[in-house]
Design brief:
Two copies of one chain form a homodimer. Chain A is built from six helices and eleven strands. The first copy, chain A, is globular. Chain A binds a DNA duplex (30 and 30 nucleotides) through α5.
DNA sequence: CGGTTAATTGAACGCATTCAACACGAGTGG
DNA sequence: CCACTCGTGTTGAATGCGTTCAATTAACCG
């Protein structure tokens, strides 16, 4: 796989299949409890990870305590294929979860250096796209749009029925660059407008999918 | 170069030397005037670029006109090695500038697929790191800190003397997720605190480097 | 049940924006 | 050389959005 040569350009890259395959076959399965740390910020990035079950977040803490959530990872997603030799963000289990892990050096012997690099290349492209999309969200959306876009992404392209919110309000807030109160307020507002409806605080029903999709942009 | 195997981890990746070398030797030199478009948003990403002189910005326009600046590129920087088959951001000349350009397919024959992919890998790692840093800036800094951090980055690690601001206030604002007025106010504020001083609106002198570096974090 | 954490809601504040006016500099023509 | 214009940058005043602080309610779990 090389950049720019794919016959069918698409806006979002799929997860690199070859690497996912290798991790799922040879990876060491690990189990983490809620809020357990999978790896620390600044830790050496020696392993590649794949979410088997549960949800993972990457987080970065500021000097003065402010926290930023980099991304959420769901079953099937790869994470930990960092940009540098050390992790910029820590990774933590949002829910109890199972994660498969392989040493990069091990993958290298299994599928060869070139294959590994290509797979990582694909993964990085995906990460970069998500990061840029996130940058735009943070830079030029207001609170209402941020929360709407988040829900739209979470509900997925087939926005119908409902969706679970595995993460708490604080995680959503730190992901969107808002406070927990503002997130709550926007959710309440969207509910009062019948765009969504909460079955419980972690379970949301989509009442007007077309309204939510308007936020996706 | 493979991820995780480098003996000396460093926080910021250098530009991929091999690729830069190839572009500078075989690239087609092009000249652009102020505000000229180098490539458009959504255009196929078939080329790799290198700034020879001048400054380049990548920009992305929203449906309702809001603009976001992705990154600024200075002489020696590579750009256009996008995450997808199509450019997420357009590239424009901030100042009159010279840019070298090569087709990816041409590079492939010159240095081989593996080399190319490795070089792009390095470049992407760099881009991802910058994007994440930018995300954090947008997500959890206030106006004062944003402007301070911008100046600190622009002045460079050896924060001393002064720096030129090749971009206008609007570009700075769209990069930082602020309005032009707020940027101007923060600059005035920093000047009134004797952290910086403006020789002209595009030329800034660093009066207290240690104060600026505090923003870098 | 009580006890604890998470989430919602209210009220007041403050930071950044918005709208508006003004200042500055570069370029052009009288 | 000055007057004029246009683009760019600065400054002021008022508004509003999101935050902050505080109190209440809901969910979770022993």
């Amino acid at each position: 796989m090389t950049i720019g040569a794919s016959p069918e350009p698409r806006s979002v890259e799929p997860a690199p299949a070859a690497l996912a395959e290798v991790i799922s076959r040879f990876g060491v399965m690990m189990t983490f409890g809620r809020n357990a740390e999978i790896y620390a910020q600044e830790a050496p990035a020696e392993h590649l990870f794949r979410v088997v079950s549960g949800v993972v977040r990457t987080a970065s803490c500021d000097l003065d305590g402010r926290r930023h959530i980099g991304e959420f990872y769901y079953p099937g997603d790869l994470f930990g294929l960092e940009a540098a030799a050390r992790h910029q963000y820590s990774a933590e289990a949002i829910t109890a979860c199972q994660v498969q892990m392989v040493r990069q050096s091990a993958v290298r012997t299994l599928i060869g250096v070139e294959e590994l690099d290509l797979a990582i290349l694909g993964g990085l492209r995906r990460e970069l796209q998500k990061a840029r999309e996130h940058m735009r969200l943070l830079g030029l959306r207001n609170a209402r749009e941020k929360v709407g876009a988040f829900l739209a992404a979470l509900a997925g392209p087939g926005v119908a029925g409902g969706a679970d919110l595995p993460m708490g309000r604080q995680d959503m807030a730190d992901y969107l660059g808002l406070t927990i109160e503002t997130v709550s307020r926007m959710l309440s507002q969207l509910q009062s407008e019948d765009v969504i409806e909460f079955a419980s605080s972690r379970r949301v029903l989509i009442r007007r999918p077309e309204m939510l999709e308007a936020f996706a942009a």
